[in-house]
Amino acid sequence: MHVAIPLYPRFTALDAVGPYTVLAFTPDTTVTFVAAEAGPVTDDRGTLTLIATASYADVPRPDVIVVPGGPGTMEALSDEALLGWIRQAHEHTRWTTSVCTGSLLLGAAGLLSGLKATSHWAILDHLERFGATPVSERVVGSGKIVTAAGVSAGIDMALTLLAQARDEVTAQAVQLAIEYDPQPPFTCGSPKTAPEGLAERALSVIT
Amino acid sequence: MHVAIPLYPRFTALDAVGPYTVLAFTPDTTVTFVAAEAGPVTDDRGTLTLIATASYADVPRPDVIVVPGGPGTMEALSDEALLGWIRQAHEHTRWTTSVCTGSLLLGAAGLLSGLKATSHWAILDHLERFGATPVSERVVGSGKIVTAAGVSAGIDMALTLLAQARDEVTAQAVQLAIEYDPQPPFTCGSPKTAPEGLAERALSVIT
Fold first, then answer.
1. Which of residues 11-40 of A touch B (CB under 8 A)?
2. CB B76 within 8 A of CB B105
3. What domains does chain A contain, in order, with CATH numbers?
4. Where is the DJ-1/PfpI domain (chains A, B) (predicted)?
5. Per-residue pLDDT reduced to its tens digit, A38-49
6. Which segments of chain B have a pLDDT < 50?
7. CB A163 to CB B185 under 8 A?
8. If we measure between CA atoms, which residue out of B190, B126, B133 comes closest to residue B156?
9. Nearest to residue A106, comparing CAs of A96, A116, A91, A114?
């Protein structure tokens, strides 16, 4: 299985590296970070740079794509090289996936029309402009398109995908390998559970 | 607050990027990836390269250090440049922390003698050779030293730390910003909950 993760300026690191770590631990799987051109791409904080080892043109037909989100998504909505790659890769993928605001890029590539999809809670409604039906769930599957909620949801999405792409025991083995037995210190990771007023604080952290 | 995360060959990406994303979203916080020399460092799968933007010598007195683990830890146990930096930085840190097998590096630096600590379940007992008492918990605090269990536990550790370093509302805002409302697809992320035989499968995934 060949997985490609596109990087673009001001992506959120965990959006990409969460699913990456899950899928890279999967036997007989290769993950390639791609970008418009091979080389360094810096994240939304300006403090972490990942290396894309291939260009979009180098990886035209991956089995799976995982499109991360981040503050840079809004500018990337007019990045025709990225959108064109997503659109063309999607024709041959087994799964086309996104994390966080990455679903807006799937939408801008024309892939979400008439489908249910999710995204980061702060911009969930924006999916409607691409003809999608926003769904406030952690992982949303619509045929071969799978979208995840914000940032950390990519880990859950990748494990869910892996169980389908391979089998449940392989996904469970990876979950145990990365000791994914989460114990968040607070019950506030979703707008559904967060105390009143916390969303405003969270938005000020993101921007 | 200045956080430094040392990178060494064959670290596990999520060990570093989980806590990084939490702490980099924290207001008035800078995170710097450091290494023996500034430059690219490649992870345990050989497919993801992060850029260290500073050398150990460039960042002698960070407020917090987060030492990631990975298959490369065993070789790093004899990396005197890394161990010396950990040892000296620790003299001035507010918190000295690790994720996964990174705790073995704290041990090799001489910091865990007589203390409780945790690590990845697969090598938890190895902490004894450094005089530490292994504890099978997700996050273990011993004064200013905080160790986390395997890979994904660094996210819980960083949020716990943040609540202490700042305040609970700031930590909650970051938890909501990264939408950390985990919904793992299986109940098997710890040896305590995993079905019989899964640990062997997980070990074959790691190595």
1. 12-14, 17-18, 20-21, 24-27, 30-33, 40
2. yes
3. 2-181 (3.40.50.880)
4. 2-163
5. 999 999 999 999
6. none
7. yes
8. B190
9. A96
